Amino acid sequence: MPEVKPSLANQHNQQLANVLPSPIRVIDAEFSEIAGLIKLTLGEPDFAVPEHIKQAAKRDIDNDDSHYAQPAGHLELREAISNYLVNRFQAPRYDPNNEIAVTVGASEALFATMSGLFNPGEKIIIPTPSFPMYDAIAKILGLEIVGLSTAPDYRLTPEKLAPVLEANPDAKGILINYPSNPTGVTYDEAEVSALAELLGQRDMVVISDEIYAELCFDGPHTTMSKLLPEQTILVSGLSKSHAMTGYRVGYVAGPQALMQHVTKMHQFLVTTAPGPMMAAADEALNNGLQDAEEMRDAYQARRDIVQSGLEAAGFTVARPSGAFYIFAKIPEAIGMDDMAFVRDLAKEALVGVAPGLIFGEGGEGNIRLSYAASTEDLEESMRRIQAYMAKKLQA
Amino acid sequence: MPEVKPSLANQHNQQLANVLPSPIRVIDAEFSEIAGLIKLTLGEPDFAVPEHIKQAAKRDIDNDDSHYAQPAGHLELREAISNYLVNRFQAPRYDPNNEIAVTVGASEALFATMSGLFNPGEKIIIPTPSFPMYDAIAKILGLEIVGLSTAPDYRLTPEKLAPVLEANPDAKGILINYPSNPTGVTYDEAEVSALAELLGQRDMVVISDEIYAELCFDGPHTTMSKLLPEQTILVSGLSKSHAMTGYRVGYVAGPQALMQHVTKMHQFLVTTAPGPMMAAADEALNNGLQDAEEMRDAYQARRDIVQSGLEAAGFTVARPSGAFYIFAKIPEAIGMDDMAFVRDLAKEALVGVAPGLIFGEGGEGNIRLSYAASTEDLEESMRRIQAYMAKKLQA
């Protein structure tokens, strides 16, 4: 346990210091101390990786796939990604050779994309509430973040987007995410099309994080890459669709002129992704569409439990059409801000949820509940929350 | 195959654009086109991962370790790293809880360290010839690189280091690497101690990349972390010691005051490393010391083949005491620079080696040969090189 030389104790990246440590994980760690608490804080599927996918990873290990893969990843996996995106979402046919890069989860995909394409001081629009890592990476890179609150219904519309675009004609990019973490909101083809039309009038890179694309409950997913291919960088991965979070396989697809920089940056970040985990992803995309459907159906049933449960408890919820989150407005009568509320709920009702303010402007006054949990835990949580709310609202 | 919107074709990180794509891989790709060529360009062990390590990874997959690990990695692995460093190298006992982070290979370890600890414009000393990624990452981060050529014997000594330190009292860090890629040079305890004493007089972070520590042929490895713990950030990994390049497991260890920033940066880069690959690393460190020894002995025998082979062919070699590279000076009489030479050698003698200039100042006029290749290929390469040289020197 070496002590640092005192003169070095303050040597660190100043931009990084301005970023809070992942706030969801801080809250989650706090709640881990409370005995008997049901934690619905993290976006972590409770499913296991399907057996045939595990077998594929094990076969790959047996086959000694332990040498460096190409920087952009196994070519077979890039081919599988290209085919999957066309067949499943009618995306453009991305060239596996130079328009797709396999990354270490969607996290590295986002970092490689944002650091590969933008320069310090350049403006990027990040609609909120959103995944806190977007804001963090942009800050670390010294980008100028342009906010855009989608409250109160948490839907990004041309009406909300147009004035921000007009006020920021020099913005170089926008980072959108649907189905949304933390709101569960998603868009149908007409809605995506309206956004694409507006964004198509601007010279702006559209980073579209569609990691929850397989988890759409009320209609098919429409990818931005289909409607605005010449401006879109598509970010996705296997973590949510196949419960493969711990395998860390993500990807980026886009026009070669942009992807050359993303792939180059990726190479300097991690060299390449681990081979056996890529083999698992290859199997998931080639032979695992059914798995994603089964998980989606399970999440949908859980969505119904928490939506009706929270509405019965007095919350107003954004229509949760995808992902595995529900974003719910705390009734005014409760008289607590969301941070105080989630701490009180954890202590009194033994249910852990995330406070809305950590997802940025517009999130305050809400809770985010992740329903990537067992049906039993969700039903018990609803009973606890309803009892707690009844008591509070009576008082 | 979408075409980019023409107005976006030039949207990219300008610092990144100043960095060449990995030059070793460019050369390697060029040589891949030549039929019958023996490639000795990349630093890629030809061994397979030992069977018990593969079994550990497969067991971990079977045990459904497919959820997010803690950001710094499996705690058991961090404990194994801490114990290994103490037992094997008498390193300080790093606290697994906050002084060690598991990364996606040593590449990500370097990126997380350099981006976590330094700010644009800050000076970092990078002795050369060195692994080109050091220079690339420093450039991407906007650091000011202070050069220090270790030619002609490629040993970093207090005599070479002192004037550079004096001329740069404001340097915030230095990045050293031993056993060295590309030269194979390493240092005994007295030599490391002399460097540590000099560096200890400065307020400077010492990033010590010791990824080849298990591959020392002429004496034990001395870690900088033992001699200068209060300033050292130790970077290492399993890629070279256990032929696990494709599994991508590296790590960083250092005083908590510095590690907190490295670990935080790591989290924003990749969230965490993949679980099954960490389980493999855990097994390697707990039960695989013998594997590393066997590989070292094999490399040592190959080192002898290429050292005597190249000397017989007329090259002057830096004493290659570690890693699996030999750095050899092209005889003046050949009359070609190293880039022309390696291209001619590839075409005429069907042996692919890397030109010294891609490793930075002091490297020009040399070749780097990686002897992480089969004994048969190395023996045949020596025959080809000797025949080629005899012909050239006769002409």
UniProtKB/TrEMBL annotation, chains A, B:
Residues 37-385 form the Aminotransferase class I/classII large domain. Keywords: Aminotransferase, Pyridoxal phosphate, Transferase. SUPFAM superfamilies: PLP-dependent transferases. Gene3D superfamilies: Type I PLP-dependent aspartate aminotransferase-like (Major domain). Its EC number is 2.6.1.-. GO terms for molecular function: pyridoxal phosphate binding; transaminase activity. Its cofactor is pyridoxal 5'-phosphate. InterPro entries: Aminotransferase_I/II_large (IPR004839), AspAT/PAT-like (IPR050596), NHTrfase_class1_PyrdxlP-BS (IPR004838), PyrdxlP-dep_Trfase (IPR015424), PyrdxlP-dep_Trfase_major (IPR015421). It is an enzyme of class 2 (transferase). One of its GO terms (biological process) is amino acid metabolic process. The keyword Ubl conjugation does not apply. Belongs to the class-I pyridoxal-phosphate-dependent aminotransferase family. This is Aminotransferase. It comes from Weissella viridescens. The lineage of its organism: Bacteria, Bacillati, Bacillota, Bacilli, Lactobacillales.
